[in-house]
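Tutorial, part two.
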Amino acid sequence: MLLIILLYVAYKMNPEILAGLFKALSEPVRIRILAILLAKGELCVCDLVDTLALSQSVISRHLAYLRNNDMVTARREGVWMYYQLTEYAQAELLPLLQFIENSVAESSVVQADLDNLPRAKHC
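Running the prediction step on this input gives:
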């Protein structure tokens, strides 16, 4: 199944884009961020910081990596930054994102993240 998804996604990409995509997915924190955004939609960076219990600088670095690979987009509202999946990710990477979502569904770490999200303070 994974091979079929990878072939589908890779079919439309040049090697540099494909390599960047897999580098972006090579960090567990970035997978956790994607899983949260897939489940909850747009979130403020402060919600991700509280949910993942990591520093703002660590979360921002991972979000920048995802943003540089066109997987998430950011918008500013006052002093707060809000992140969501890009249209490109939701369209072109949908099979891969669905695979990630299904793969981490049983993960106790990701489930704890999702359970912790409602308790996170909102900006």
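The helical segments are 2-11, 15-24, 28-40, 45-52, 56-68, 87-92, 94-104, 108-116. In part three we will examine how such features are distributed along the chain.
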